[in-house]
Specification:
Ser/Thr_kinase_AS; EC 2.7.11.1; ATP binding; transferase; alpha/beta; eight-stranded mixed β-sheet; about 550 residues; elongated
Length: about 550
């Protein structure tokens, strides 16, 4: 193999003239090269050091990179070997500083909101790699020097030298590789690495950036002891990511994303409140879990009502019917008539690995995600919920969980939710059921962990002394009440196959009543925007 300085100024592969050394590591050197065929075009050429890999491993990396099709990952354009056995990968040249460069330039002090924003992008990239077909890809070497930042802090991952395909059948990796200070324990113990290994490296990098350049494995201190004043949501997530045993960490990149997203949203909201040019497009992402304290209380009606209020304000949103539910949404929306032709139910498609083939069912700014009328068939896991949320990609997602608070996948969603809305009424018998008390105990546990729990009353509540006794029996008083509508108005909408919430005066009455709830997750400037016209409807005629 030639000396790295000897390569500079020479041509390799019959096409690439080496200009300078861009970087180096234990697996190889990366050079800046000019394309002699495409004049003016520059590439990053990575030389794989002899002895660090074999021809088969080199071909594995080349073929893996060739199949990647993500704008924030390196694009392989060529690969070849030379007569002396050297192996080269030719990739697009990404200009810009690395995260390590920026970190040092800023005196090892970066804003928390910027670090969290970078982490959220990395979660999306890891999700892409970890769900790659036919086999997941484990990156295994996340560190600031392998993260490049473009305009507006767009993240790009570089250097896939130690990445590999994940195989469940393997009990251990063949090579113990990684960067000391960031790599997961299993990488140095010769054990199997999986997507949770990448999540450990993410936690290690967050610790490094937030602590001013300290390594978690050296300090052996919680991050909050190193840097004071960090949000609890951030410190608790880092603590989970850095657990030695993989089963004790967050289990997917999307889980990490949803844990951090509420924190990023709060920081963004501060910026929005200071920005006079506020628009609906700047609304922070929100995962809102909506359920009933007991059956038949109207959680689905509440979810649809919120969705149509958001639609009227031109805020993209989605209503998802959780797979644990009894199917209801498809029939309420007259799916046989209104669903797109050949509509594929998202939960079914996702577990059947055909999620990319689904056609969204949209109504204005709302995307409907109902269950199949016959119910969800099969096993649903927490990771499936996060994959489903990733496919929806709407700023505000309303997850209707009905009364399934005890379901493990619902509990996992509640841990990640930005808001939890609980619909109830003053039915004495239902309020005193053992299942109701169990639900209240679980919800109170979420509240103690810092989750925002909002009780919403539906239909006529108790009055006078009974009302006070009812409110006193709850962990918190209902924040608002969903108004009742005349039976005739509701039935007319049903017979028309229409959504009653789309009647202008019904919608206006709903918004007025639900404003205290809307104020919990929408900026005031957006709440004040009323985009639906005032005109005569069947509701006004009935009045």
């Amino acid at each position: 193999m030639q000396n790295k300085q000897q390569l500079i100024g020479t041509s390799i592969g019959g096409r690439y003239r080496i200009h300078s050394l861009l970087g180096q590591g234990g697996m190889g050197h990366v050079y800046l090269a000019e394309d002699l065929k495409l004049k003016g075009k520059k590439w990053a050429v990575k030389e794989i050091l002899l002895g660090t890999t074999d021809p088969e491993s080199f071909l594995d990396e080349a073929e893996m990179l060739a199949r990647l099709g993500h704008p924030q990952l390196p694009q392989l354009v060529d690969y070849f070997t030379t007569d002396d056995g050297s192996c080269f990968l030719v990739m697009d040249y990404i200009q810009g500083p690395t995260l390590q460069d920026l970190f040092e330039e800023k005196g090892r002090q970066m804003p928390v909101v910027q670090i969290v924003g970078i982490a959220l992008q990395l979660c999306d990239l890891f999700h892409y790699l970890h769900t790659f077909k036919p086999r997941p890809i484990i990156y295994r070497d996340l560190k600031p020097a392998n993260v490049m930042l473009g305009e507006l802090d767009q993240v790009r991952l570089i250097d896939f030298g130690v990445a590999r395909h994940y195989s469940q059948e393997k009990q251990s990796d063949t090579m113990q590789i990684g960067t000391l200070g960031f790599a997961a324990p299993e990488q140095f113990l010769g054990l199997q690495t999986d997507p949770r290994s990448d999540l450990f490296t993410l936690g290690a990098m967050l610790y490094y950036l937030l602590s001013g350049g300290h390594y978690a494995y050296i300090t052996q201190k919680p991050i909050e002891q190193i840097r004071k004043g960090l949000p609890d949501a951030l410190t608790s997530t880092i603590q989970m990511l850095l657990q030695e045993q993989p089963q004790n960490r967050c289990q997917s990149a999307l889980e990490v994303k949803h844990r951090l997203r509420s924190l990023h949203s709060e920081m963004t909201e501060v910026r929005i409140r200071q920005d006079s040019s506020l628009t609906a497009a700047t609304i922070p992402d929100k995962l809102i879990v909506v359920g009933g304290l007991f059956a038949g209380v109207g959680s689905t009606f509440a979810a649809i009502s919120l969705a149509r209020i958001l639609h009227a304000k031109q805020i993209p949103n989605a209503v998802i019917e959780h797979p644990a539910n009894e199917p209801d949404l498809y029939m309420l929306l007259y799916g046989d008539q209104r669903a797109p032709k050949d509509y594929i139910f998202a939960s079914t498609a996702l577990t059947g690995h055909t999620a990319n083939e689904t056609t969204p069912w949209t109504s204005g700014f709302t995307t409907w995600v109902p269950l199949h009328p016959e119910g969800f068939q099969g096993a649903w896991h927490p990771a499936d919920s996060y994959r489903l949320l990733h496919t929806i990609k709407k700023p505000i997602v309303l997850m209707d969980v009905s009364t399934h608070w005890g379901d493990s996948t619902v509990q996992e969603l509640c841990h990640s939710a930005d808001e939890i809305i609980v619909v109830l009424d003053a039915s004495p018998g239902k309020c005193n059921r053992p299942s109701t008390h169990a639900h209240l105990a679980l919800l109170d546990l979420y509240r103690k962990r810092g989750k925002k729990i909002h009780f919403v009353a539906n239909r006529a509540a108790a009055v006078g002394r009974l009302h006070r006794e009812w409110v006193d029996s709850l962990p918190a008083a209902p924040i608002c009440t969903i108004p009742e509508f005349p039976y005739e108005v509701v039935m007319r909408a049903v017979w028309k196959g229409a959504c009653i919430q789309d009647e202008d005066q019904v919608l206006e009455k709903l918004e007025t009543s639900l404003t205290p709830l809307l104020q919990q997750f929408l900026p005031d400037a957006i709440i004040r925007q009323r985009r639906y016209p005032s005109r005569n409807t069947m509701f006004s005629r009935f009045k």
